[in-house]
Amino acid sequence: MAGFINPVLQAPNVLEIDVDLTVIHEFRTLLDEQVLAGRFNCMQPNWSSDIRWISPDTLDAFRFFQSRFERLGIAAHVRPWLDLESCVRMYSGFLVTRSRCEAPDFHVDWQDTGLQAFTLLTPITDNADQFGLLYKRCDGEVAAYSYRMGKALIFGDDFLHSTQPGWSLLPVALLSFTFGSDRMEYWPRIAVTAANQGNLVRLPDGHFLVRNFDDPNQLARVALAPV
Fold this sequence. Notes:
The chain is an alpha+beta fold. The chain has a single domain (5-222), classed as Sandwich (Jelly Rolls). The protein has helices at residues 21-24, 33-36, 59-71, 75-78, 187-194; strands spanning 5-6, 11-12, 14-18, 40-43, 52-56, 89-101, 117-123, 133-136, 142-145, 151-155, 161-163, 166-180, 200-202, 208-211, 219-222. The longest helix has 13 residues, at 59-71. It is globular and about 45 Å long.
């Protein structure tokens, strides 16, 4: 599938969309550590920040994200670029929190997927302007994007980006979804990112990958109840 250039951001394969704040605010309940206990997993990548990825560990928690993914109507924004059998598949949903970032860490979420996978990012706390997004434009220059309540970024292949360095007295929280094609032929490239973002990841065909807690480096493909 051909890619596209955002004429405002002057960057590849990225959209800015409106999102319903009524739905977004429902994720604030997950900022309570007691709510997370036993239902969510927390990962901390070795970056120049105190970033945390908080993702579902149970089907019930996964359904919380899935239902809101559907209510936000996210699939409609990427459907024109996806090769689909029947539906846009949500692979995972998680919160991204941080209170400090010392240095940029430029990376792409997706590469060589044929534009068959996307990431959404949108703020759920009002202090998100403390940490913007740095990204590379098509001309190679670094530009800055400021998160705003009610707006979300969706990006696919080759969108090179990083957290903008900063700090906040209270943690800044973003909501993120990963999603894309429901065809398994694309999974090997999508899995480079998607298979490493939590303990419970949905495959394009609707099955799940569940991390083996006896060997955290191994994921098992299992059929679980429909979500």
